Amino acid sequence: MSRVTLRVNGADHDIDCDVRTTLLDALREHLDLIGAKKGCDHGQCGACTVLVDGRRINSCLALAIGYQGRDITTVEDLADGDVLHPVQQAFIDNDAFQCGYCTSGQICSAVGMLEEAKQGWPSAVTDDPPEADVELDRDEVRERMSGNLCRCGAYANIIPAVLEAGR
Fold first, then answer.
1. Which domains does the chain have, with CATH numbers?
2. Gene3D superfamilies under this entry (predicted)?
């Protein structure tokens, strides 16, 4: 067992956990933050996506002990009180979820992805390396969100929701 201090959603949390505890398990089992889901537990589905220092990661592949001192944001902290984050609102407006299991990971991934595009990070489908923000279209969103799977097949509504939030 080891004492780990995690900065999650703007607050420090001290937990005692095995050094092999994943960030996902620390969030869910020690901090009762159950938005991030354990889907595949192999980093293949994206249901566990959270933001670390503004970048998206698969928390099922990350050891909690390695994220001390980092700023971890979960889906529970995206809204500002009763005002939803623009991505959350776009998912509701576009009916971009069915069962909802993957939704928190999809939303966190979209928030991180929109920031990456805004900073000009190219994807595999970006035509020319941009000097500023990447212009998002269906192909860009599809490529950039490809690490997040939806077993219900809500992609037809997820892509327009992400595009709407990116405007």
1. 2-77 (3.10.20.30), 86-166 (1.10.150.120)
2. 3.10.20.30, [2Fe-2S]-binding domain (1.10.150.120)
